[in-house]
Structure formats: C-alpha cells, structure tokens
Specification:
The complex is a heterodimer of chains A (416) and B (256). By secondary structure, chain A is α+β, with helices and mostly antiparallel strands. Chain A folds into three domains: 110 residues, Acyl-CoA dehydrogenase/oxidase, N-terminal domain (Butyryl-Coa Dehydrogenase, subunit A, domain 1); 117 residues, Butyryl-CoA Dehydrogenase, subunit A, domain 2 (Beta Barrel), CATH 2.40.110; 165 residues, Up-down Bundle (Butyryl-CoA Dehydrogenase, subunit A, domain 3). The longest helix of chain A is centred in the middle third of the chain and has 37 residues. Chain A starts with 7 loop residues before the first helix and ends in an 8-residue tail after the last helix. Helices cover 29% and strands 25% of the residues of chain B. Chain B starts with a strand and ends with a helix. Classes of the chains: A alpha+beta (416), B alpha/beta (256). Chains A and B meet through helix 1 of A and helix 2 and helix 5 of B. Bound molecules: flavin-adenine dinucleotide. Flavin-adenine dinucleotide binds next to strand 1, strand 3, helix 11 and helix 12 of chain A.
C-alpha cells in the first residue's frame, strides 16, 4: 500500500530541525556567506543537536536514525541557509560517515565515527583529481602496499572541507579513492581508504593542501591537496582491495540524495521569498505581479518541479534505508542507481531554474547584493556542475539503466 | 523534589491561517504543546538537570494520538513520566473541569513539591487553570513567571505587571505558572526524539480520579473571533498630518 505520509518520528524530527535552523542558522547565513566560514561554535551546536551521522548506528556514536531523516534535516537546514554551505557541510557529515559505517573496518569506524558525530572531526570525499572528476576509473592517485601499510601518492582537486579539517580540533579526512599498485584506466584496480591528513589534532607533513576561491557557497571551503608517500595503516582500508570503485559509487549514491535535498531546501526558500514579493509588489494600477499569468504560470511550473524533485529525494532516501539499514531482501545496492541519479539530476537543475526566474521576478533589486537570492543561485549552481557527480553523468546513469548499457555505452571499458 | 508539569495540546498559532472574514481555520492548523507550557516544561527540565528534582511528571488532559505526541515531546525534553487523562472531548471541557482533573490527579499521586503550568494557552488564553489548581489544592500561587529560581524548598519568580516587575517568593509546595518569556525551550535532539517514542504513557480516566464527568459543564465554542478595526489614514498629500492622526488614533486605542 502506498503511503505518502512521514512517520510521527520523522515529523517530530523535521520540526525540531526546522526550529533549530530557524533559531541558530537563519540569523547567521548571510554573515557566514560573506565571511566565508562556518563558525566552529555553530558546527559544534549542529553536532550537539545530533545532526551529524544521523543514519550511522549508535554503536559508532551515530544517531541511529535513517537516510529519510538525514534528507529532511539537510533540506530544512538548506531552507534556512539557501547558500547551502551549512547544508552541504551537514550532508557530507551524514553521507560519507554512513558509507564508512557500511564498508569500513571495525577499528577505523570506532575511531573515526564518534568524532565526526560529535563535530570534532570532518569526514568527506576525496575522489576528484585535476584531470577530471567524472571519470573515477581514470584516477591516478596510487596506493602501494609496503609491508603491512599502504603508501599513497597523488593529487586530489575540488575537495570540500580541506580548510575545515585544518581548523577543527580533531581534524579529519576523506573517503579517498586510489588506484591499487599502479595507475592506468581501470575499475577493477581501485581501493578506498579513510585518509586522515589531520588526526588527534596533528597535521601530517606528507599532505600539502591549497584552498580555492569560489563564486558561491562561501561558508564551506573547497581545496586541493597532494599526498606524498602518505602512509596509511591497513585498518583504514575501506572494503576489499580492488573493490573500491563499486563501494565509492554506493557512497556517491548516498551523498547524491542529500545533495539533492539541499538544493530543494534552498529552492523552497526562493519560492517562498518570491511568493511574498509577487503577492505584494503592485504594478499597472495596483495589481500584484502574481496576477499576471506570465508570472503566475511560471511560478506554478516551478512549484510543481520542486515538489516533484522532493519526492524523488524522499523515495531514493527511503530505498536507501531499505537497502542498507533494514536490509530488506527486495532491495539491492545497484537498484539505487536509477532513483538516485534522477533525484540528483532533478534537485540542482530545478533549484537553479527556480533561482534564474526568482532573480528576474525581483527585477533590478534581484541584481543587487542586498537581495540575497543570488547567494542561493550561486550556491545551488555548484551542484549542477559537480559535487558527487556532474549532471551529464546522472543522465548517463539514467540512460544506461533504462535503455540498457549496451545501447548507451559511451565510455571506454578497456582496462589498462 | 517531585515536579508536575501540566501541558495542553493547542494550535500552533504560528501556522494558523484565517478566512477572509477573520474566522481561524482551526481544522487545518497543526496542534502542538502550548508555547507557555513548553516554557513550563523547560523550567522543570532545568530543575531536574540541576539535580534539584528527581521526578518530572508530565500530564495532559486528553489521550488522542496528538495528546500522546505532546507527551512524547515532554519526554524528549526531560520528563521522567507521562500521563494522559482519558476524556473524549477535552477541548470542550471548562477550565474548572480541567483544573479539577489536574488537582485530583495531584492529590492522588502526590505529594508534589512544585506544580508548573503555562500561564495561558495559545487558543483560549483564559489563564485561569493554574490559579484554579492552586485554589483547589489550597497551595500558594506564583503566577505569570518571567523568571523562576528554585533553592531548596524555596521558589522565587519575577513577574511583569503593568507598573513594573515584581518578585514573589514562596515555600514549596506551590503552583507556578510560566509565561512564554521565561526561557528558550530546548529543542529535543534526534536521540531524545527516538528514545521518547519507546517510553510508556500512562492512561488514567477521570473516574479513577473520582472526578465525575457528568458534572462537567460543556462549553460550546461557536466561533473564535479576533476583533479587528481598520482605520485608514490618507498620507498622499500631507505625511506629517497623517503621522499626527496616526499617533492620536493609537493613543485613543490605548496602544501607546
Ligand atoms: C563546490 C564543489 C565541491 C566539490 N566537492 C568535492 C568533494 O568533496 N570531493 C570530490 O571528490 N569532488 C568534489 N567536487 C568535484 C566534483 O565531484 C566534480 O566537479 C565532478 O565530478 C565533475 O568533475 P570535473 O569538475 O573534473 O569535470 P569533468 O569531469 O572534467 O567534466 C567536464 C564536463 O564534461 C562533462 N562530461 C564528462 N564526461 C562526460 C560524459 N561521459 N558524457 C557527457 N558529458 C561528460 C561533464 O558533465 C562536465 O560538464 C566538488 C565540486 C564542486 C563544484
């Protein structure tokens, strides 16, 4: 039986996040976007509220919640931080910790996850490299087994959280994707690691970070780094050797749902702002501009798209819970590819479509810095470019899983 | 100390919408724990956190799913026990009946050192249940607290009256009503929320308390109305004159 209602727990939780975000995030989001930094006290506050590691089991310090709850939390935070820096920080601290909880080794999980949940450490994703993020199998960073340790060398680019791990008391690191033993295009020679460039408060010298200047979402940093003979204990290996490609793609599925949730929260805010404006700004002898069909029909279309995108997200989150948390035998990890790619394609695209219209509705005021809508526009736009996968890659996945992989094969599959 | 907090299921006035003629759309409005009741619950939780109370009992009159939900919210905020009084139509009970039920519950399950209630509910805002409970129990009443301080068996509140702030003090046991200014209620964390759903909610009927519902006078609320008056002042030609008129009008209304 189809049931489109959230459970009582989910509603109570969503309302609690809404209240929290209204009280502690909404008054600060513009200042955070201007200053380019989420204050450490706010990160701690979000952690104390239990908004990191929501779907991670309690034995690892997580909240024992669900992906549906994580999606609701990220959406609510993004509504109150439409520039989405805080929302994205939060989503990274839910998605990748869950991936570590699902695929990592016991000792590493026990060591890392409680510190992420408490807000003292960051755990993100280190996949993209300078030569191109879409082609994960083409990554060049290499992990070599030397004795009982791994030695990793290579370069990563456009990685969220590079500055934050340097500033957090504990530090943190990334779910890092590396070629096993030698470079060359391959998905069967990839292994994942929990790489912690700063841990127990100490920064490792084999890690050289840089931080980029971006056009939006300023509160959260994106940077690059090199690893030079960076030694990693085998306990930090995530999953089996050479199975890393398939595991990181599952991690991407989890994180993509939450990225879509963030962009939808931001888009909802933009539509609500627009509604206030469209119903009160009066032109042509006192008619609210909402009364002109050129405006109201477009509003109707966008409202509908946001609603549709929301349900893509909730469904994908619900499937993820069934797949990984309640482990229903009816769901397999690969079944998530299609619904998740649709959610990730819909969310950011819809949000930027909403913003391009909303900015126009605000007229010249929309083009001023005083009107804060541009912050949401620039923030959500980053997720059409990339972050957990470019839009074209989502379309590739959707086409592959519907038309069949033989029909749409457009990438090399010859192992090097 | 043993503390009792009485909480009411009421409309979330922040989400209340109105018809054109001013009729509130109550059926469409979500219901939550009253704002001042939440502050009362927060005071109780703080007293418990400070190690001054071991037991915080949350009580509500009504046992529907929504009533149970606000009791779970009370658990999530720090209650140690929750009780729902089983009555069919709690919204139609008079304030005196509600107060009688609460007082009877206190007599039966007490003694309590402190009874906390919100100073008024968002819907009816009669502000009489607290005073009635105090009177039925023959206990001192500290009403409309903007601040509450508890030391040993001594309670001090600060209350804002028309001509300034007053401090009132009483020995325990006492009834304290708390305004929505008293504190910023905590927002339950996800762990609090998930744990609270597993906690038991006791159900007690008015008969168990010796309150006969047949004696209860039912109130039939036909309509809630917000009296509104529209005064239009034309400021097109002379803004200064319009400002003077506006000030005069506000003075006449006793607003300023
Ligand atoms: C704000 C932000 C934060 C980020 N944070 C992280 C992070 O924390 N960790 C991380 O690992 N990465 C992160 N990224 C990187 C992101 O994942 C990549 O940008 C993304 O995977 C795309 O890679 P690319 O930018 O190198 O573009 P490329 O892969 O070079 O692609 C360039 C263009 O070509 C298109 N294209 C590529 N291949 C195909 C194809 N087969 N068919 C059709 N079109 C194709 C793409 O859609 C894109 O438009 C972040 C990016 C941004 C913008």
């Amino acid at each position: 039986m189809v049931d489109f209602e959230f459970s009582e727990d989910e509603i109570r939780f969503r309302d609690s996040v809404r209240e929290f975000a209204k009280r502690y995030i909404e008054p600060k989001w513009i200042e955070i976007d201007d200053q380019g930094k989420i204050p450490m006290e706010l990160i701690k506050k979000i952690a104390d509220q239990g908004l990191f590691a929501i779907p991670v089991p309690e034995e690892y310090g997580g909240m024992g919640g669900t992906m549906v709850m994580a999606a609701l939390a990220v959406e609510e935070i993004a509504y109150h931080d439409p520039a989405v820096a805080i929302a994205v920080y939060t989503l990274l601290q839910n998605g990748w910790p869950l991936a570590l909880a699902l695929f990592g080794q016991e000792e590493a999980k026990m060591e890392i996850l409680p510190k992420v949940a408490s807000g003292d450490a960051f755990f993100g994703i280190g996949s993209t490299e300078p030569q191109g993020g879409s082609d994960v199998a083409g990554n060049k960073t290499v992990a070599k087994k030397v004795g009982d340790k791994w030695v990793i060398s290579g370069e990563k680019a456009f990685i969220s959280g590079v500055r934050e791990i340097q500033e957090l008391p504990e530090g943190g690191g990334f779910f890092l994707v590396a070629k096993t033993e030698k470079p060359g295009w391959s998905h069967t020679r990839i292994t994942d690691f929990a790489v912690l460039p700063k841990w127990n408060g100490k920064i490792r010298e084999e890690w050289k970070p840089t931080v980029y200047e971006e056009i939006g979402r300023h509160g959260l940093s994106t940077g690059g780094f090199t690893l030079e003979n960076f030694e990693v204990d085998d306990k930090y290996r995530i999953g089996e050797v050479n199975k890393g490609f398939y595991l990181v793609l599952q991690g991407f599925n989890i994180a993509r749902i939450l990225v879509a949730a963030a962009t939808i929260g931001s888009a909802r805010w933009a539509l609500d702002k627009a509604k206030e404006w469209l119903t009160t700004r009066k032109l042509f002898q006192g008619r609210p501009i909402a009364s002109f069909e050129g405006v109201s029909f477009r509003y109707a279309e966008l409202y509908t798209k946001v609603e549709a995108a929301k349900y893509f997200v909730y469904k994908a989150a619900w499937m993820t819970d069934n797949t990984y948390l309640t482990k229903s035998p009816r769901f397999k990890p690969q079944d998530l590819n299609l619904p998740v790619a649709m959610a990730k394609m819909m969310g950011p695209t819809t949000a930027t479509e909403v913003y391009t219209e909303v900015l126009k509705w605000f007229g010249a005021y929309g083009y001023t810095k005083e009107c804060s809508a541009h912050r949401g526009w620039l923030g959500t736009f980053s997720y059409t470019i990339g972050a957990e996968g470019a839009q074209n890659i989502m379309k590739y996945i959707i086409a592959r899983d519907t038309l069949g992989s033989d029909a749409v094969r457009n990438v090399w599959v010859k192992e090097e | 100390m043993k503390v009792l907090v009485a909480v009411k299921l009421t409309y979330d006035i922040n989400q209340l919408k109105f018809e054109k003629d001013g009729t509130p759309l109550l059926d469409a409005c979500p219901r939550v724990m009253g704002e001042a009741d939440k502050c009362a619950m927060e005071e109780a939780a703080r007293i418990k956190d400070a190690g001054k109370a071991e037991e915080v009992v949350a009580l509500t009159v009504g046992s529907s799913k929504e009533h149970q939900r606000i009791l779970k919210d009370a658990y999530a905020m720090g209650a140690t026990k929750a009780v729902a009084i089983k009555v069919n139509d709690p919204d139609n009970l008079s304030a005196l009946t509600i107060a009688t039920i609460i007082a009877s519950f206190i007599k039966k399950t007490g003694p309590y050192d402190m009874i906390l209630l919100g100073s008024g509910a968002g819907d009816t805002h009669s502000s009489v249940v607290g005073p009635m409970v105090a009177s039925l129990l023959n206990m001192p009443l500290l009403a409309n607290a903007d601040r509450v301080k508890v030391e040993e068996d001594d309670i001090t509140i600060v209350s804002t009256l028309e001509d300034g702030q007053y401090k009132f003090r009483s020995r325990t046991p006492a009834v304290v009503t708390v305004t929505s200014e008293a504190n910023e209620p905590r927002i339950p964390t996800i762990r609090d929320i998930l744990r609270s759903k597993k906690k038991p909610i006791d159900e007690i009927s008015p008969e168990d308390l010796g309150v006969e519902l047949s004696k209860v006078d039912l109130v039939d609320v036909k309509r809630y109305e917000v009296p509104r008056k529209r005064v239009k002042i034309d400021a097109t030609d002379n803004v200064e004159e319009a400002v003077d008129q506006l000030i005069k009008a506000l003075e006449q209304e006793g607003v300023i």
